[in-house]
Amino acid sequence: MRHALRTLGIAAAASLLAFASPATACGEDTDCAVEGGTYRIHLPEGGTPDGAIFFAHGYRGTAGGTMRNERLVGLADDLDVALVALQSAEEDWTLPNSPNAGRVPQRDEVAYVLRVKDDVVTRFGIDPDRMLFAGFSAGGMLTWTVACSAGDVFFAFVPLSGTFWKTPPDRCDTDAAITHYHGTSDTVVPIEGRAIGPTRQGDMNDVIAMYRADRGLSAPVRVEATGLECTRWPGPPELGTYLEYCTHPGGHRFSVDYIRRIWERDLP
């Protein structure tokens, strides 16, 4: 464990859970309900978690599937944090220019994420300033969308192998710290994107150009990271924000160590 168990021991925590109200009776195997959606949560043993990692699944994924990812759950346990598994309303997140735009009931995904965060804070007492947002593939697209719409509500964003549909927004009105990871051999979501039905995946190079110009980032610098090629564009020194872009030689995959790296390095 990264942190020692809190004063509240495992036995005491179990006692509290035994007397939990129905509103708190949700977790890894049972949905937690918020307006417009649900999520699931894994809590480490020993009391209040030392923060939370929010994770957005890929296309046709589920919150239950996230909870079956032993490496993600193990990462949360190692860091003594909660793992919050988000759940799309349909088989994919309803994002601008996505293939399902206009064909299925549209949910405001940013509003959904904010409701989940508020619920996690209220229901489980987790510090709202110690929360990181990550997502893989289509979940990476959601990560970018939340970062550019509500970037001040998480201390860092980690999009994995996914960016905006079609084209990035004209601007990204946030000062979030963003680290994007992508495989140079990815054929599912290539770095330059590809056509999907009537639309296409966005080009990561366009996203970098937009974010750099909109946020007034400084000249790029190389960042040392084992097994990765990373470039960082720092933001204004007084904000401590940046855009970091890391590539690996693999395909459509990610390592939980990518998330660990950001949590351990950037947590305020």
TrEMBL record:
**Gene3D superfamilies on file:** alpha/beta hydrolase (3.40.50.1820)
State if Cytoplasm is listed as a keyword: no
Listed A to Z, the keywords are: Hydrolase, Signal
Keyword match Amino-acid biosynthesis: no
Q: What are the Peptidase S9 prolyl oligopeptidase catalytic domain coordinates in residue numbering?
A: 113-163
Which GO MF terms are attached to this record? Answer: hydrolase activity
| Classification via InterPro entries | AB_hydrolase_fold (IPR029058), Peptidase_S9_cat (IPR001375), Plant_Biomass_Hydrol_Est (IPR050955)
SUPFAM superfamilies xrefs: alpha/beta-Hydrolases
Task: Please state the span of the N-terminal signal peptide per the UniProt entry.
Answer: 1-25
Q: Under what name is this protein listed?
A: Polyhydroxybutyrate depolymerase
